Design the sequence.
């Protein structure tokens, strides 16, 4: 008798993976091991083991990965300065490689022949999961039901019907059918009325932050301490990275900070619309950026801004475990050696504003920055500097190469006969 094949499914307990688990069992007869990662998604994992086993899993593994998520994924992301298309702070993108990494480890431990995920064939997550599987164990079979010709559940409405038919408990209904992903860093909202960019997000959409209309009329202040680019303190008290983000999420959420409505370019070539809540992350990104302005020299800062664009693409595209990303991390770590100090943030009406900056490694000189001329700066030095800096422009002008200085040829009349 042939031995039943084991599959490790990345299992969130949401609509997609809730129906995929029994589907894999009834369609192919696999033994499904559900893996759920605790990344700070609130009460979403409550009773998830019981739900997975009731849905047909032979085993459910739950791992608390919050500390690893913060130290090995969120802090490198923060230090990089990566923001995708000027708005998206990569909350879902950065979590997928961590989930997939542990999925591969469990597959090894359980002698599973395959790993599976519930990402659709239209989105980015399918790429992030599968590139991580490939990078960490290219021999594992990858099962993606949404791309399986036998998988006939081609809409979220059909998935809801399947769940009802199989007595699977889900939160979604055909009227409340947003696709959400939540972790310590953010929560994303997609689908339903958001699929039309002409629809304004409803106030009731927001889960971890107040709508702007309900933000307090009085600001709050918080001081964030950094050591070599990593947040280590809040209001002078040293606490864990997980606690820092949780605390800032509450403060930022109170003031409607970190709400982003974005039409983004997916890797697969589709434009999609998502609404994101990233309260704590938005505060940290602004604070870190401000501290870098104080401690990085001009050339390093400008080059790092270029690197941040590429880093954001690598994370968004699922290339976390790639040689280029590893090389960029080495560069970024060097740039962060002096990014130490404290940033006081003012939180008010959706905006995290810089209230004060301090650093023992500051490159800012009040004497040099002052309008008052002093012995520390010889203004006549600027004369020669500007003359040499502008020399190519001067030469081009003298030889007539500057298009603005070219004399127009006189117009000639044609003699009509």
Sequence:
């Amino acid at each position: 008798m042939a031995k039943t094949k084991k599959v490790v499914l990345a299992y969130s307990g949401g609509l997609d993976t809730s129906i995929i688990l029994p589907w894999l069992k009834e369609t192919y007869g696999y033994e499904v091991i559900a893996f759920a990662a605790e990344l700070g998604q609130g009460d979403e994992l409550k009773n998830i083991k019981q739900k997975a086993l009731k849905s047909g899993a032979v085993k459910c593994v739950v791992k608390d990965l919050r500390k690893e998520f913060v130290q090995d994924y969120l802090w490198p992301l923060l230090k990089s300065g990566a923001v995708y298309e000027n708005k998206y702070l990569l909350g879902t993108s950065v979590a997928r490689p961590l989930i997939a990494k542990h999925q591969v480890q469990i597959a090894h431990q359980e002698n599973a022949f395959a790993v599976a995920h519930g990402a659709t064939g239209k989105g980015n997550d399918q790429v992030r999961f599968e590139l991580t599987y490939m990078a960490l164990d290219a021999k594992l079979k990858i099962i993606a039901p949404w791309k399986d010709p036998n998988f006939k559940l081609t809409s979220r409405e059909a998935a809801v019907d399947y769940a009802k038919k199989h007595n699977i408990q889900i939160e979604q209904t055909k009227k409340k059918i947003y696709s959400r992903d939540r972790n310590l860093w953010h929560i994303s909202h997609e689908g339903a009325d958001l699929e039309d960019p002409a629809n304004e997000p409803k106030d009731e959409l927001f889960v971890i932050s107040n709508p702007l209309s309900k933000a307090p009329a009085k600001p709050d202040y918080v001081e964030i301490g950094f050591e070599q680019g990593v947040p280590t303190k809040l209001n002078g008290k040293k606490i864990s990275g997980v606690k820092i983000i949780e605390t800032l999420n509450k403060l930022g959420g109170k003031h409607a900070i970190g709400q982003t409505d974005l039409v983004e370019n997916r890797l697969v070539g589709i434009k999609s619309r998502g609404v994101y809540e990233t309260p704590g992350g938005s505060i940290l990104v602004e604070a870190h950026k401000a501290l870098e302005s104080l401690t990085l020299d001009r050339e390093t800062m400008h080059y790092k801004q270029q690197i941040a664009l590429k880093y954001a693409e690598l994370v968004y595209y699922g290339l976390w475990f790639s040689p280029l990303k590893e090389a960029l991390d080495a560069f970024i770590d060097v740039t962060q050696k002096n990014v130490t100090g404290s940033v006081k943030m003012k939180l008010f009406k959706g905006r995290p504003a810089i209230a004060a900056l301090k650093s023992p490694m500051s490159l800012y000189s009040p004497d040099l920055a002052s309008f008052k001329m002093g012995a520390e700066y010889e203004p006549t030095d600027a004369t020669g500097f500007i003359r040499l800096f502008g020399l190519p422009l001067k030469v081009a002008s003298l030889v007539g190469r500057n298009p603005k200085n070219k004399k127009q040829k006189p117009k000639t009349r044609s003699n009509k006969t």
The radius of gyration is 27 Å.
